[in-house]
Amino acid sequence: MAHDPNAAPVPDRSHDRVGDRYARELERHLDWLDSFTSTALGVLSAASGIYTYLGVRTLLDDPGLWTTFAALAYSIAVSVGIFVFWSYMLRLLPAVRSAASRVGLLLTMALGSVAIVAMSSWLNAAALAGTAAVETHMAATVQTYQTSLERAHANAVAGQALSRDVARVRQSFADLSEQEAGGTLSGFSGRGAVFRVLTQKGAELQALEDQLLAAEAPIEETFAQGNTILSRMRGTSVEPGPLEDRTVRFSEDAVQLAGLITQLRQLNPAPLVGRAAQDLADAVVLPELDGSTEATRAGQSSTITSVLSLVEQRATTLAQAATEVMSLPQVDEALYTPMSAADAVIAYAGNFVPAWAGAIAIDLLPAVLVFIIMVVQAAIRSGRGEGHSDERMTVGELRAALAASDLLRQIDAAPPAAADTSRREG
């Protein structure tokens, strides 16, 4: 047979047939997957609802019937909302073709995901890691209280250590009084006016030293009691048992420990030393000069003036030492605030990244299915061509089409008169 050079070229349909077979294969896979996708989505929604219920119960203190009903209603609403939302996304987002529609639905999906995290995921995290988060809060509180207790004890010990400075100053006055008694200070031996001034200040310093030494035992006793409570609080934070009972006992110990820290701050004798140093220089009772001659009394007056100058110097030294102690870093206010499991999970979110990841994943996993279906639908359209319309028919539609085809063939094969009669009857 001769080839006509003017004839139109016959289009190659092999590529279209391959693309159509590829598209039909993907459609068969989607049909099979669609048979259980809704069930899987329902299971994920129900699981999220269960953990949401457990998370809500941690926020509600009343164990009554209405509380249970409220938590159950909220969890059911969350499950239904998650199921409906992702069902919409699974059906509609892969089906739209225009860029504007896709962008709009993607923004809607992002907004819905944020809403799901806000109403469900954080409660799921509370159910997964709530107890551990509260225990972490207890451990952090114990660390804070330990720091405060140790700092209060260190400040109190530093204040009590001022007793050595006081003893040194007292000893200097005692030595001077002995010198005065021997006549080597003012030049006149005996226990006259100068001696009495020196012994007066020595007695004041001795009383202050006794007070500082007496503070040592209460400081150490209070510190030991605080360490005992800290040890008990550490045990409470990790021991097994109902969390609510442990939280109550932990709170009681925290209140007691806060009182001991305050007591240690009050036992710090540094302010006492500062006030005593001020009184040492200001409160001086001058005795009457008892010299037998004018020269003796003049010597006593001159020596007393020197002694008072020395007293002022020693008082300044003690006041500076007390100021240095009081300028040490002060104790931070330690206060234990009980937290619910949900609040603790948020406050210590960085410590529970796996729990947060699992809580969010169980709610947002269907987003991965949405993107998978979008990719597959795009592949199907690419295989068939964008202009191809879906001609798949159900079994019922195929039967109806065959019945209509048989009826048309019968009408075409009938005589004209019978056909007219058939049309009128129709």
UniProtKB/TrEMBL annotation:
Domain of life: Bacteria
Transmembrane segments: 66-90, 102-123, 355-376
Protein keywords: Membrane, Transmembrane, Transmembrane helix
Name of the protein this chain belongs to: DUF4407 domain-containing protein
Source organism phylogeny: Bacteria, Pseudomonadati, Pseudomonadota, Alphaproteobacteria, Rhodobacterales
